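Re: beginner question about structure tokens

> Can someone show what the tokenized structure looks like for a real chain? I only ever see the sequence side.

Sure, here's an example I had lying around. Input first:
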Amino acid sequence: MKPFIHENFLLGNKTAEKLYHNYSEIQPIIDFHCHLSPEVIASDKQFENLTDIWLRGDHYKWRAMRLNGIEEKYCTGDASDIEKFKKWAETVPVTIGNPLYHWTHLELLRYFNITDPLSPSTASEIYEKATAMLQTKEFSTRSLLQKMNVETICTTDDPCDDLEHHLNLQKSFGIKVLPTFRPDNIIKTEDPEKFRLYITKLEQAGNTEIRNLDDLLDALDKRHSFFNEMGCRLSDHGLERIYFSAYTFHDIDGIFKNLLNGRIISSDDTEKYKTAIMLELCRMNHKRGWTQQFHLGAIRNNNSRMFRLLGPDTGWDSIGIAQDPSKISKFLDELDNNEQLTKTILYNLNPADNEMILTMAGNFNDGSSVVKVQSGPAWWFLDQKTGMEKNIKDLAAMGLLRRFIGMVTDSRSFMSYPRHEYFRRIVCDFIGGEVEKGLIPDEEELLRPLIEGISYRNAREYFGF
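And the corresponding structure tokens:
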């Protein structure tokens, strides 16, 4: 019987097969946004078993298991690793139609050459085979990254991080592992006590005292400069939405002092503070020539009971409300009007906003660089076949598909890299289909740069690592 994942998986026509195998498959991977641990890469961790590398920390799988009626102890609890894996194997057959079904079998094949579908009947054999392989040097963390032809990784790092592991990696590893500046905690004002604790942490990281807005901006700029010295060229901002409200420096200084004094601020002051701090951070990004990324549209930690028990990033997030186009417009225009708008990627989580984000980005491209402001890859809940196809079609219709920077994993898993293959196959299937319909000329000088660009070259040129 033909294996489920075969050489032409997802490639629905002969042109798609040619595009993938001749141009896309061989390209290296630039993972310009992920949540991989630099400490794990620096230590070249040897994973204990298949659960350790595959299920621990993966809230995509936990979410599916919960939907399947699996108790929490088998997701994040104290069940043994083999028990957790068997519960995942029990869940996999019911994920048909979900990207997890495809990802699971691509990952088993590409890392371990396992072709059997995962199910309760195959779970023990697959677990034992993969776990044995993980004990060998060829399956250490760094070896796995090399096996997947990864060229560059951009991790996600708080401004207070000392980047010790990145320094280690710069000296000892051929793959570029670069930090990304993620200052979300400085605009989380809902809990004044947590906010004050974070300010104390920032003071310690920058060896400075923060008593007013000037002090805060100086401390952030020092950390920004330090990240720049460590090779950082990207910032990232995880926002429910873009903020915008008129303010004065005096307004924000007073609001910040109220926060330092433990006071809860009004919704109007919250909007002003978040607007001001985000604009200042964007000005720093422009000053140092970075690219800034905005991940928009998630509503996080919806289940307060489970958030108290497990903390963030454990699978209790969803798609949020549609963005306010006027606030995005005013925010970007404020920067552009003062010639302080750097390269910008807008990642959209709400599919209702696809066309708005694409057309909004086009308002702020001035010819100073290729697609200076752009709509990013399909992200999180949209990072699946239907979402990717819609993103590609919308971008082709309202932007420049030829300049698309391609796939982002946004992953905490060291087994996530076959998702790049998944994405590339979907792109080649779409382009191949358009060629065979007669909508795109079947000419190598047109198709080769299109496919190689989306797969790899556009990201390399855009970010300039």
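Each token stands for a local structural state, so reading them left to right follows the chain. DSSP finds 19 helices and nine strands in the chain.
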